[in-house]
Every structure is written in structure tokens, then in C-alpha cells.
Design brief:
Order of helices and strands: HHHEHEHEEHEHHHEE
CATH topology: Rossmann fold
Number of helices: 9
Structural class: alpha/beta
Strand order of the largest sheet: 3-2-1-4-5-7-6
Distance between the termini: 29 Å
Largest sheet: 7 strands, mixed
CATH architecture: 3-Layer(aba) Sandwich
Oligomer: single chain
Number of domains: 1
Number of strands: 7
CATH superfamily: Vaccinia Virus protein VP39
């Protein structure tokens, strides 16, 4: 059964266009909202994702759907030579570029505008590719994942962090209420975009998580595919190699 396409604003624009507009609209409050609504747990998830790459010791990294670059900054712990943070939203990138300049890491982290479904890099360019909470926003999931695999070198690793749906009481019920009422409320009153933050739980609800997602990765040619649920299933860490 084909799952419905969930878009932030439900206009005649494509999902890609709407997602771009959404992130441009909320870029000015994104970092605050991200940490506030996750109660800071997102930082723990990112550390877990970074640790999944430690043994690889990657020197060239690509962070897709980088947003304002929080995950790219976390990747600095791996001491790479270069990190490219790529996003489709110019608004998010503007915030991210200022952040890199203020932290004096813009010589390592290069924030670039680009589309995950048409990456402007040669095949086998990166030791590792990361995506944090971005794959569910891909308009064509398989095309985006195929592009990620293409630009990863043989023996390289892909790390994907994404929201999922908790299955056990009481986290399942609590997360459902939090997603339905709390997130849109603060999205409306702080970020001034209720639809953008209503889109978050809606997009999570239709995303092919767990085994369904790992099956897609395997089908596309990823090897050693693994999935680890985090914080009672609120998020899942997926890893695979080329």
C-alpha cells in the first residue's frame, strides 16, 4: 500500500518546494526550537551518531540536510580534514554560515546549497555521509538514498538519524500527545509557523521506519545495515556501509 505524501502546507507546490519554504520560514528560530522541543535530548542522539563513525576515522565528511549545521559541528570530534554541510534551504544555510564563522570553524565546515537527490559530487568522494532528521523530508526517498551511496567511497559508512514512533507504554502515549498538541502550540507561538511544526509528527507517522527502512537500504545496495532505537523509540539510528 502506497503511503500518502505529507507536505507542510498542502499547496500545489511539490514536497521539495514546500519543505524548502518551510525551513526558510523557520530558520531564524530553528536552533532554539530544536533544543527546546527535544528537551536537549537531540544532543545525546547526535553524540551517539558521531560515535558510530569513530572507528572509521573519516577525513572527508558530507552532512546532508545539515540545516544550521549542528550535526556538522558535532562531527568535528572526529577530527576530519573537511566537512561539507549541504542543505536545500538557503535560509538555514545563512544561519549556519554565521555560526561557523563565529566558532571559527568555517575553514573546516563548508556550508553549501544543494539537493540531496542530485548531489554535485563525483562518486566515491566521501569517507562517510550523515543525515540527521532529514531523510523523511526527501521527495524521492530512494533516489536520495541512492545518491548518498554513490558519493560514499567503498568501505565508507552512512549514518542516518531519524525520528520514529515509540511502541511501548507510556512513551508511545506521551509522545503522541506531545507531538499532536505541544509541538504545534509552540510552533505557532514561538516560531510563528504552526503548520511547519504540525508537519513534524505527520511526516514521522508516514515514514518507513525500522525494518521497512533497513529493507530499503539493503535493496539499494547498502551493506551491514543496522538499526538502533533511541530514547524508547522516539528516534532511530541507522547505519550501513558501502
Amino acid at each position: 500500500m502506497t503511503k500518502p505524501v505529507v507536505k507542510p502546507y498542502n499547496t500545489e507546490q511539490s514536497k521539495k518546494e514546500e519543505v524548502t519554504s518551510m525551513f526558510n520560514n523557520i530558520a531564524h528560530r530553528y536552533d532554539f526550537m530544536n533544543h527546546f522541543l527535544s528537551l536537549g535530548i537531540d544532543r545525546i542522539w547526535r553524540r551517539k551518531a558521531v560515535n558510530a563513525l569513530k572507528s572509521l576515522e573519516p577525513k572527508m565528511l558530507l552532512d546532508i540536510a545539515t540545516g544550521t549545521g549542528d550535526f556538522a559541528i558535532a562531527l568535528l570530534k572526529l577530527k576530519p580534514k573537511k566537512i561539507i554541510g549541504m542543505d536545500i534551504s538557503k535560509g538555514m544555510l545563512e544561519v549556519g554560515k554565521k555560526k561557523m564563522q563565529e566558532r571559527k570553524v568555517d575553514h573546516i565546515i563548508d556550508m553549501q546549497h544543494g539537493d540531496s537527490e542530485n548531489l554535485p559530487f563525483e562518486s566515491e568522494t566521501f569517507d562517510a555521509v550523515t543525515v540527521a532528521f532529514g531523510v523523511r523530508n526527501f521527495e524521492n526517498l530512494k533516489l536520495g538514498l541512492s545518491e548518498i551511496l554513490r558519493v560514499t567511497r567503498s568501505g565508507g559508512k552512512v549514518v542516518i538519524l531519524e525520528f520514529s514512533k515509540p511502541k511501548k507504554f507510556p512513551i508511545k502515549q506521551s509522545f503522541a500527545l506531545y507531538s499532536k498538541y505541544v509541538i504545534p502550540f509552540f510552533g505557532k507561538n514561538i516560531a510563528k509557523d504552526e503548520k511547519a511544526y504540525a508537519y513534524l509528527p505527520e511526516s514521522v507517522s508516514v515514514f518507513p521506519e525500522g525494518k521497512e527502512f533497513t529493507d530499503i537500504l539493503t535493496e539499494l545496495g547498502y551493506h551491514n545495515v543496522k538499526a538502533e532505537t533511541l530514547s524508547g523509540g522516539i528516534a532511530t539510528l541507522y547505519t550501513g556501509t558501502k
